[in-house]
Amino acid sequence: MNRTGIVARVSIPSLADLHAIGAVQQPSYADPVSRDAAVETLRRMPPLVFAGECDALRDRLAQVSRGEAFLLQGGDCAETFEGVTAENVRNKLRVLLSMAVVLTYAASVPVVKVGRLAGQYAKPRSSDTETRGDVTLPAYRGDAVNGFDFTPQSRAHDPQRLVDVYNASAATLNLARAFTTGGYADLRQMHVWNTDFVRNSPVRERYEKIGHEIDKALAFMDAIGVDPEEFHTVDFFSSHEALLLEYEHAMTRVDSRTSLPYDVSAHFLWIGERTRQVDGAHVELLSRIANPVGVKLGPTSTPDDAIALYEKLNPDRVPGKVTFVTRFGAGKIRDLLPHLVEKVTAAGLEVAWVCDPMHGNTFETDNGYKTREFDDVIDEVRGFFEVHRSLGTWPGGLHVELTGDDVTECLGGGNRLSSLDLATRYETLCDPRLNRAQSLELAFLVAEMLAER
Ligand SMILES: O=C[C@H](O)[C@H](O)COP(=O)(O)O
Ligand SMILES: C=C(OP(=O)(O)O)C(=O)O
Ligand SMILES: [Mn+2]
Q1: Cβ(272) – ligand 2 distance below 6 Å
Q2: What are the residues whose beta carbons fall under 8 Å from the beta carbon of 328, sequence distance 6 or more?
Q3: Atom of ligand 1 nearest to the CA of 401
């Protein structure tokens, strides 16, 4: 045992052993020599995050499981290498931090802030191939695996991209650390950040009201002598889906303080709905690391699946270790979530329950865009709150796909985007994201739900 409460199980299965266990949704590399070279390069790279930071996040998630804090996790469905610019990262952080401020102030609850960024480059897909006209090529699986351009060269699986993921993640995390600790995220800035766009936005009144309240609260704290440095930095953590075994295995290292393995590619890793087989390689690898981990649970998950996953991922019952991210869809959550939460609670398992209101609500419009209705997103979150309220459990957080830009990818919201508007700025390479206005609107609605409790 050590301060993490985890019994040291230093052995990590080899990559070959993991593949032998069986892993779905993996790339097929044509050349094993260049694959191994990329993995060896990654093994020599410095950590992107530190084990102590992962421990700090695990402690914060333990607060979430106990009902003492709320998790806000968000970012792109799929980050892209082209998107590693100061403007793009800053816009995403701005919207996330603004949402967090709304939640903190409107609901008076501490918010744990986690980006789906600095590593969210690999995508599981429903189909291995994509057909356009009479041409069929491998599906785009994220910049970590292949390119989006519809050519055989671009769609080939290229292991050098794993090294590119490391570099893109390092650059993104460096920016995120600078923005969140260098004064940019100072609470006093937040009001200013959004004034330009809230002017014409449906959230204007509510946003300005909250801005004035924060200004008043800060002036009061100033007057009583609270150190202004207190509002200068925010705690911010990184996360992505742990999908590619080559990458996650190469980034798993034994921490010298605790003798425990940590996946140092991100603070928090999650297992997707398509790779959560309890006897599969993804669960095996994540059961060995000390980072806090999440599992997406879709409508086919049974309580027994959830309990087995918990037991495998957290045999030592370390607080904050396991987050269950449910993504049932607005039409199913009220029917399916109660049984799951009841059984897991009755088994005495302490988990953070988080709602992903995106992935169960995706459909294709007649004009060919993959999209989501803002109202369905809200309805799933509402269902999540209703179920937890009726069971006396804590609705621990929100996991969303969003961007800081004014894209047109999801329908509805205060600006009432229609399917015809989707063509204007549909930029995602995978799933549709909430834009800046829709994200803030969601934050206000969730803050009301939290405050009602
Ligand atoms: O982000 C999640 C999945 O990768 C995505 O929803 C899969 O999309 P697909 O059904 O178009 O493959
Ligand atoms: C792949 C994702 O979700 P899920 O595993 O829930 O389908 C995702 O979060 O982008
Ligand atoms: Mn997605």
Answers
A1: yes
A2: 298, 299, 336, 337, 360, 380
A3: 1
